[in-house]
Amino acid sequence: MAVKYVNEDQYEEIGMANIAILGYGTVGSGVYEVIRKNQAIVNKNAGEAVEIKHVLDLRDFPGDPVEEILTHDFNDILNDKDVSVVVEVMGGVEPAYTFVKGCLEAGKSVCTSNKALVAAKGPELIRIARQKGINFFFEASVGGGIPIIRVLNLCLTADDIEEISGILNGTTNYMMTKMADEGWEFEEALKTAQDLGYAERNPEADIDGWDACRKIAILTSLYTGKNTDYERVYTEGITKISARDIKYAKELGFKIKLIAESQKTDDGLVAMVAPIMLKRSHPLYNVDDVLNAVYVRGNVLGPAMFFGSGAGKLPTASAVVSDVIAAVKNKTNVRVDWDDKDLELCSVGSVKRSFFVRVSGSEEEKLDRIKELFGEVDIVKAPGVTGETGFVTGVMTEEEFEKGFKQLEGAITRIRVDNREDK
Amino acid sequence: MAVKYVNEDQYEEIGMANIAILGYGTVGSGVYEVIRKNQAIVNKNAGEAVEIKHVLDLRDFPGDPVEEILTHDFNDILNDKDVSVVVEVMGGVEPAYTFVKGCLEAGKSVCTSNKALVAAKGPELIRIARQKGINFFFEASVGGGIPIIRVLNLCLTADDIEEISGILNGTTNYMMTKMADEGWEFEEALKTAQDLGYAERNPEADIDGWDACRKIAILTSLYTGKNTDYERVYTEGITKISARDIKYAKELGFKIKLIAESQKTDDGLVAMVAPIMLKRSHPLYNVDDVLNAVYVRGNVLGPAMFFGSGAGKLPTASAVVSDVIAAVKNKTNVRVDWDDKDLELCSVGSVKRSFFVRVSGSEEEKLDRIKELFGEVDIVKAPGVTGETGFVTGVMTEEEFEKGFKQLEGAITRIRVDNREDK
């Protein structure tokens, strides 16, 4: 038992919750730091004194205060009956999956920031937690510090959610912002992001869109209640975006952002990740640098947006610790609807929008052919660009567009344009 | 008992929760509509079939489906042992307070959208709910459909919240947007807001800032855990803002918004409502029309923002129904920290910022005196405006500024400028 400060002359006896942290990397050390820094607030909100009893890492940390509670053996944690909540912040599917499953089966609640684990094994881990009457929480797996998982599970409960879209990857958003603001080419933006520690040395998960893809799959599973196989979500990264594309976007008053989106359409549910040109009135237009944002549209709520630090040690740790507090507070299972059953995803071919296209050759040479393939278009001129023609099509399905685009001789690139009127 | 659809071949037996709605006005009929429209989602998330058993209103609604369950007698609800959750959407302190207190004392959870009631009687009603082991929820009292109350109570629990500021009144935000976009004078904006049904015939609660004041008092109570007396929150409305002020703001690249803000400073907690000039990079700059937004800064999360429909029948009802779902799901008290004890508020005089000032007389005539009173300033010229001088001061405390402003001969107006660098 511990004591809790209530006010000047009152202390309450409260219980103590022992927790363990799997992984002492960026997020793990952040969790340690946040609990230490905000210990009184954490205890008050948890209703118990939250004590970090073990930290698991393969490495040693000589001189770090964590040394005293550091272990290299997962069994020290698994077999410690005093540990009721385990934080998993190692990343990757294995060995995280084996550890997390073991903890849940041993009756310990788990809180994780690991989107790869949640996207791959979410429904199974949620089911085990439910069977054991404990909790598997994963607030930090999407949107870093932005509360979105709990918002979907506990706040927007009166709505039929019709759409979730967002900027879910801070690294690529930083890169797109710099390319727009500084006129940088993709390679320069990537190198700077790596130098600043935003992008990994192997940046594929970010720039190829796989990180955002896992996150939109998690959100889609939560709002539909059915499992969304992230490998079936159409995913296109930002690697083909050039400084010249951005010149055109500026002429149009648009920004190019890596958008992860998921929406209920007349044909079914469509989920995708791709760079999209956004007009100035789009709610995600102003989300720059490493910020993340999630736009949600409910059938009665209408549009809402949540934005903040989508990554970074302390914001992510803030979300993990809010999970720890919820895990300590909730001694029984908090129901999360995410069935094992796979959600049917329909093809992106049915989504209607405009498309920006660049084709080699002058307007004079190409206009007739362009009109033949796409109907009326808006020609765009970018300053200092010659030898090619840029244009924006009217609204059509992706399928219709791709049919024309494949036949367009000298086509250089195409970028989707979000010009739906409801935004 | 009722049955719940689980999937194609499985139904589960679930309980039934009878609710009552006090008031069948805009929000009350919205609550009725949202539950009917999204009945399956509401039942699934509540874990029980949610049935509206009574609606209380003084009026009759001939031909409306509500007629069958309409009552004019509050005792029909109070004495109905089957009713476990009561929705209060009448507005105003009385008789809402008497009714709500009666329901809580009778062991019925209450969900309300009534900011006047919550600001005036929050701590007492929260205490009764805790003693009775039931709940008093008020998500819709601030920010309409934007989940902010539950976000503070359940999501941002790992942080020491350092600041909350927001655009919390849709009517005045609509007016300020129209004045900026259309060049309208205050009176024209107010008349249009009234014609569109945004503003009441007696618009003082909105335009004098009292609505926003109650809302920031509620948020401040929640994030500090102590009662914030809304009558002690410094409150200035938008009635003095003119089309000419907005011309100057545009020259500066600023927008004027009615901001409700509350922050921990070195001197203590400061809470206030006032029109403030925001620079383009301010997160609230782009929140236009009837939208609301809440900006929160936590000591580890950093900045986050939540935005959406701050008012309107269905968005507000969406928040009320999410409370109903939480009240049905949580059979015991969900702790809300909001003590009876009053929070010490410190004077706005200690807040540091810049100030925009208009003074009659030309720059030539006035500059020496202006510099004498305020030090170096930036002169602003608005197109077509003569016979006066506009300027922006450097950063100083309100107290220092007011001292100078009182001595400035021919002073016309002054508007606060938010130019803190962390935004």
Describe the structure.
The structure is a homodimer of 423-residue chains. Chain A is of the alpha/beta class and 423 residues long. The first copy, chain A, is 36% helix and 27% strand. Chain A has 14 helices and 19 strands. In chain A, strands 9, 10, 11, 12, 13, 14, 15, 16, 17, 18 and 19 form an eleven-stranded mixed sheet that branches. In chain A, helix 4 packs parallel to helix 5 (115-132) and helix 5 (115-132) packs parallel to helix 10. Chains A and B meet through helix 2, helix 6, strand 14 and helix 12 of A and helix 1, helix 2, helix 6, strand 13 and helix 12 of B. Strand 14 of chain A pairs antiparallel with strand 13 (302-309) of chain B.
CATH superfamily of the largest domain in chain A: Dihydrodipicolinate Reductase, domain 2
Largest sheet properties of chain A: 11 strands, mixed
Strand content of chain A: 25-35%
Question: What do we call the CATH topology of the largest domain in chain A?
Answer: Dihydrodipicolinate Reductase, domain 2
Gross geometry of chain A:
elongated
The helix/strand class of chain A is alpha/beta
Helix content of chain A: 25-40%
Largest interface (CB < 8 Å)? A-B, 53 and 54 residues
Number of helical elements of chain A: 14
Average residue-wise pLDDT of chain A: 94
The oligomeric state of the chains shown is homodimer
Q: Number of folding domains of chain A?
A: 3
Number of strands of chain A: 19
Question: What gap, in angstroms, lies between the N and C termini of chain A?
Answer: 53 Å
CATH class of the largest domain in chain A: Alpha Beta
Q: Rounded to an integer, what's the Rg of chain A over CA atoms?
A: 24 Å
- Label the CATH architecture of the largest domain in chain A: 2-Layer Sandwich
